[in-house]
Design goal:
This protein is an all-alpha fold and 232 residues long. It is built from 12 helices and no strands. The chain has helices spanning 18-34, 53-58, 64-75, 79-92, 96-117, 124-134, 139-143, 159-169, 173-179, 185-197, 201-214, 221-231. The radius of gyration is 18 Å and the shape is globular.
């Protein structure tokens, strides 16, 4: 019933006190996860109401509120919103905690895609991300979140997708988008997802439409239509 609480409060529909708050929160969740919203890191010096002396001395903002916000969004299953928070952190402060949250969000989205596709594996975007990151991760993180076999079948990939995902993993999403082509379905799907995570739902919707137009019988056409419906 709150999108920025340290502990996610909950209620249940039909209960007199909970129901109005649950209903009031629905458009907020949709805005954060699907609409044109991006996250900016706090000023290192804090706010006019509360100075951050550590930030003033070091020139670095306190990352814990941003990490807490990303974890809160992930707990609420707002994975795209969580990635929007993690984006500037990946760019400037890729700490182990930030990378852990990024991987957990990727695993959750990969699991959703696997269900949407009805196939053993998700899109190449999620598979390549998880394959590249988990090769350098500890066993605890590999076992956390949904269990996925990202090597069970051959990847539908290309050198441009591989380069794009290297940029994506490090938070340089503009460079990632510039590498992706507008021809094959996997590139278009990756492009649309990164556009959405960058806070540009209109561009994402247009890219999903292009994928459906060019590849109506592709396995990614159905998930693209589902994403398009969620953006309207």
């Amino acid at each position: 019933m709150s999108v920025d609480a340290a502990v996610v409060p909950y209620g249940w529909s039909g209960e007199l006190l909970s129901s109005p708050k649950i209903v009031a929160l629905l458009p907020v969740k949709d805005f954060l996860n699907r609409q044109q919203w991006t996250y900016s890191l706090p000023d290192p010096s804090g706010t006019p109401e509360c100075s951050d002396w550590w930030g003033i001395l070091t020139g670095s903002p306190n990352l814990q509120p941003a990490l807490l916000q990303a974890r809160t969004f992930r707990a609420m299953k707002l994975y795209t919103a969580a990635l929007r928070v993690l984006h500037p952190l990946l760019q400037h402060y890729p700490t182990p905690e930030v990378r852990r949250e990024f991987i957990l969000c990727q695993k959750e989205l990969a699991y959703q895609e696997k269900l949407d596709l009805g196939l053993p594996t998700p899109s190449s975007l999620r598979r390549i991300v998880l394959r590249q990151i988990e090769n350098n991760s500890n066993d605890d993180l590999t076992q956390a979140g949904p269990m996925l076999n990202v090597t069970v079948s051959p990847l539908r990939t290309s050198h441009s997708i591989e380069r794009a995902i290297q940029h994506y993993i490090h938070g340089d999403w503009e460079a990632a988008l510039s590498e992706l082509s507008n021809s094959d379905s996997e590139s278009l799907y990756a492009k649309a997802q990164i556009q959405l995570e960058s806070g540009n739902p209109d561009a994402a919707a247009e890219t999903f439409r292009e994928l459906i137009r060019l590849h109506p019988d592709d396995q990614l056409a159905g998930p693209s239509q589902n994403m398009l419906d969620s953006l309207q």
